[in-house]
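Dear Dr. H.,

I hope your travels went smoothly. While you were away I took the liberty of generating a structure for the chain from your last submission, since the lab meeting agenda had it listed for discussion. I wanted you to have the full record in hand beforehand rather than looking at slides cold. The sequence, exactly as received, is reproduced here:
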Amino acid sequence: MDEKTAIAYLTDPGDRKTSEISKAIDVLYQKHQSYKAISQQVGVSPKFLRTRHNIFRLPQGIQWQIDQEHIGITQAYQISRLKKEDDQWLLAFTIVKEKLSIQECEDVVNIVLTQNRSLREALSTSAGCRFDKIQPLLLPIGFDIWFAINRAAWNQKEDWADLCYRLIRQGLNVNIREVVSQLRTLATDLEKAESMGDSAKKETDSSNYQNEGAVQVQEGPNEQSED
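The corresponding predicted structure, in token form, is as follows:
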């Protein structure tokens, strides 16, 4: 996004998403380094700019929930006050699932920042949130998938629910960067193998051609002697 587009987003926001507005603010902030200067340029308050600029620094998944209006602007600001990304995710998730109010969010964040307590402890004591509840996972699947899951589970000598839980945990623990690195290594190995195969094929074809030439040379005199 260039400066001209960023100014247009802020002077006439229309129905633009909050994440788009926060991106526009960041573009202008990179140039001016001052909310007051941006405020004078686009005609919105420094508080408006500061609050939404903080949203730009949040993880993309949380920004998506803000765009979906599952998390309010003031709640998003409270999330941005937390230093640890894991805490930001946990508070965002709790806001959506437990319907925390703005005041509850502020109280929880203040406890974390001023009393050196964990976010889980603050959510538990201040907002009454529980983290020992078992949440059922409901998935709409057809008979064929259901049958395949049970078949795979039986082969592993375990219940289908245990198999699903284990596979989900494995999926969550996947290191995407490591997978990409492994795929790149595999691609390089395949290219080398293909290159070696082509070289071997060329050597074989060249050897066959030379052998055929030698046979023709040997056959020539024999044919002449028979005449």
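Two observations you may find useful: Residues 176-226 form the longest helix (51 residues). The mean pLDDT is 82.

With kind regards,
E. W.
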